[in-house]
Amino acid sequence: MADGERILEVDLGNTRGKWRLLDGAAARARGSLATADLRRGELPADWAQLRPQRVRAANVAGADAAVALERGIREQFGLGVAFARVEQHCAGVTCAYRDVARLGVDRWLAVLAAYQRDPRAALIVDCGSAVTLDLVDNAGQHLGGYILPGLNLMRRALYQDTDAVRVAAAWEPGMALAPGRDTAAAVNRGLPLMVLGALERAREMLAVEAGAAPSLWITGGDGAFIASLCDLPHRLAPELVMDGLALSNP
User: Pairing relation of β-strands 235-236 and 215-219?
Assistant: First the structure.
């Protein structure tokens, strides 16, 4: 594939972020970063070799993280950052929120990317610090969604707010979800079971709305783990949010 414009893409979350360098349509490099490091002014060491021509980003980590990213990009590359924004209409999708600024931009970008790749009803599940589920119908109408605590957030809540349910995380891809016979197993199996239950119920409701089984997309930091436990037909797309950047910020 011939070389094209080099674009650094950043998906900045509350705890961690992901990045990749596109050269035309191909990803030439990718990696991750800790959001706390970025706030301290620490950029990934790999960025020194990238030489991007443009930078575009999705940020749900707040204004201070955005400022830190802009400062670092300007100092290292002499470039600005094009931050994605939620719009009422984009790439064939209409946002359900009356106040579009209240929808997380990561959710919006994932919906755009999923619908662009397969323009029919879809459930998009992003498993990060929070688990978000967004529904879109066959006509590209975003129907809204759900927000749940992420796996680690739920586990920490049990650890901090209960006396007897204090267990370490023990999650393995494809692990059994049979009822736990001790407290640790009950917690570590119960939490992913909650996510899967929400996913299945949301998909059932969308299937009634759409008149057919919707596509199911799974992304986010814990996406591969949840996908390994999901018996429904699905597509694991770890970079779905960054895929949406090309639609919101072409």
Answer: parallel
Boundary of a domain, candidates 59, 83, 107: 83
Could you list the pLDDT tens digit for every one of the 250 residues in the chain? 335 899 999 999 988 999 999 998 899 999 999 999 999 999 999 999 999 999 999 999 999 999 999 999 999 999 999 999 999 999 999 999 999 999 999 999 999 999 999 999 999 999 998 999 999 999 999 999 999 999 989 888 887 777 777 888 889 999 999 999 999 999 999 999 999 999 999 999 999 999 999 999 999 999 999 999 999 999 999 999 999 999 999 9
Is residue 42 within 8 Å of residue 88, measured between CB atoms?
no
Domain that holds residue 15: 6-83
Closest CA relative to residue 115, chosen from 140, 148, 94, 135 = 140
pTM: 0.92
Q: 194 in a domain, yes or no?
A: yes
- Cβ 137 vs Cβ 210: under 8 Å: yes
Q: Are 124 and 224 within one domain?
A: yes
When divided into structural domains, the chain yields a total of: 2
Q: What angle do CA 150, 104, 60 make, to 5 degrees?
A: 75
- Enumerate the active-site residues: 106
What are the strands of the beta sheet with 215-219, ordered from one edge?
Answer: 142-149, 130-136, 122-127, 215-219, 235-236
Whether residue 68 sits in one domain with residue 21: yes
Q: Identify which of 234, 199, 236 has the alpha carbon closest to the alpha carbon of residue 215.
A: 234
For residues 235 and 153, membership in a common domain is answered with yes
- Can you give the CATH number for the domain in which 42 is found? 3.30.420.40
Within-domain flag for 64: yes
